[in-house]
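Possible regression after last week's pipeline update?

I re-ran a chain I had predicted before the update to compare outputs. Posting the input and the new output here so someone can diff against the archived version. Not blocking, just want to make sure nothing changed silently.
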Amino acid sequence: MNIPVGLKWHFRAIALLSVGVLLGDMILSAKFGASISIEVMLIAAMISVGSGLLLVLAGYYYFTGWRPLSYGLCAVWVPLFAFNCISNMGVATANRMHEVESAHLKKAAFNEKDKARKEAEVRLATFQKQLDALLSKHAWAGTVTADGLRSQVADLRKAEVSETALGGCGPKCRGIQNQIVEVQGKIATAEQRAGLEGQIAATKRVLADARSTVASADAGLSHTNNQSTLYAKWFRWTADPDVSTIQAANEGMGIGMAFVLAIAAAGLTIAGAWPALIQAGREAAAGMNWTPPAPKPPSDEKSWLQASNLPEPAQVNRVPVPNNDLRVSPTTVGEMNLDKIKGLLKTHRVVAA
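New output (post-update):
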């Protein structure tokens, strides 16, 4: 095969790539077999290599003329290629499914932790809103405490008792009683404010812990899962595909990878060997058309005539002369065929009789 100089490196690169892809294909099949046993691992690896190299052997026999054998090898190659695809499919799909499922589990755990964070934020916002509403309605509530108000009620009761002892419960005594009722009402508001502030403080601590947990948690981010999600979006044309669609897209991608790898291993291998196969075919064709060289004529004339199956000198009208000349009459020439005449001309100088 006459390959231009500029393309020779391309064919060499294809040959090198075929070796790399074939080794990768073999490793993938070996991993599939290793999940069963060591023996299956070795068998799967050899079948993978065989599916890549068998086409080259079939091509060699095809170009060298052994067509039936070539067709037989192609028939053997088909189940080997199918097994190679299945083994690649098992590893590629299983690995992708494992990564996607792990990502989903991690994401579910992360979502639960993030849910706790969001709930704490909602509670904090609710308590803060209630406190703001309370303080906006009772501005004084932010300046007193329930214990202080209780002490104030105790002092008012003492004043009430003293006033009653002086002359009964008159207007001043009733004023003190009104103050007691008013302060007791404020005690409930102060306690409500204190309770809200306590809940806000506790919720802030919970929220801080939740945020810390979310920050250190694995969010379940995965390139494989992102790829499968993207393919699922294309397949269903939806912004939020469900889990089953993502899994189907992931499995389809694994199957596609398995076929591409198996086809690349076989295709690149035979593509790299193609120039050599063409050359082998040409050499085989040249060998079929080969004819052995003519034997070297003997030195003496009589032996040469015997080797050439020519008549003896006495049977032909010729007269040997010096200088290896041969005189032949027209009658003798008519009796000779063309091959014999050509043979005589190679070793004799023929002159007219």
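Follow-up from reviewer: compared with the archived run. Strands lie at 318-321, 325-328, 349-352. Marking as no regression found.
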